[in-house]
Write a structure and sequence with these properties.
By secondary structure, the chain is α/β, with parallel strands linked by helices. 34% of the residues lie in helices and 25% in strands. It binds 5-O-phosphono-beta-D-ribofuranosylamine. Residues 7, 9-14, 86-87, 107-109, 134, 173 line the site of 5-O-phosphono-beta-D-ribofuranosylamine (GRF). N(1)-(5-phospho-beta-D-ribosyl)glycinamide binds at residues 11-13. Catalyzes the transfer of a formyl group from 10-formyltetrahydrofolate to 5-phospho-ribosyl-glycinamide (GAR), producing 5-phospho-ribosyl-N-formylglycinamide (FGAR) and tetrahydrofolate.
């Protein structure tokens, strides 16, 4: 299956997914990595892995709609079966989401439905939570609100810093995102009107 990954930053999840494709733990091939920022560090990492890259800067567009239309056209050029958001820090329009519905996954660093949006680690610490985690979900029109496919929990220890917590969550991201991408690549996972379905079972 053909995978396109969208990034804005360091792209460590992108690299991890590309590596898992290479060692056949994911039944897919990363055919392109696209960033919305010219300076995204992940672009160089993708190039080093021999993956096609593209930068489509949102600054060159006047509206969210026009950017997302251009982005959708660019993504379609690669004819993806799966589109993976991996630290892609933009809210996508309803049209974009609908165009790729059922093929579009995101990873969000919280135990959804808790802490949608930004600064999840800081918010978990501020609230004195004793556990935190990460969620992989189908993308729908509601921000960080699509059906959750898989979550991993991590403990929060007294005195944890935001960086320590982020690091602990990242380790779990590298475990769970490849699994879900593999499930989608092997047609075990589907988005239905009722929600996410794995092997015919509603999650
Ligand atoms: C991850 O924490 C992910 O959960 C969030 O953005 C971060 C991306 O990190 N959506 P990286 O670019 O994959 O290193």
């Amino acid at each position: 299956k053909r995978i396109v990954i969208l990034i804005s930053g360091s792209g460590s999840n992108m690299v991890n997914i590309a590596e898992q494709c290479a060692n056949q733990r994911i039944a897919g091939l990363v055919v392109a990595v696209i960033a919305n920022k010219a300076g995204a560090a992940g672009i160089k990492k993708a190039e080093a892995l021999g993956i096609d890259t593209a930068v489509l800067s949102h600054r060159d567009f006047e509206s969210r709609e026009s950017y997302d239309q251009a982005l959708a056209a660019l993504v379609e050029e690669y004819q993806p079966d799966v589109v993976v958001l991996a630290g892609f820090m933009r809210i996508l329009t309803a049209d974009f989401v609908q165009q790729f519905q059922g093929r579009l996954l995101n990873i969000h660093p919280s135990l959804l439905p808790k802490y949608k949006g930004l600064n999840t680690h800081a918010r978990a610490l501020e609230n004195g939570d004793t556990e935190h985690g990460v969620s992989v979900h189908f993308v729908t029109e509601e921000l960080d609100g699509g059906p959750v496919v898989l979550q991993a929990k991590v403990p929060i220890f007294p005195g944890d810093t935001e960086e320590e917590l982020q690091q602990r969550v990242h380790e779990q991201e590298y475990r769970i995102y490849p699994l879900v991408v593999h499930w989608l690549c092997t047609d075990r996972l589907r988005l239905t009107a009722q929600g996410a379905e794995l092997d015919g079972q509603l999650l």
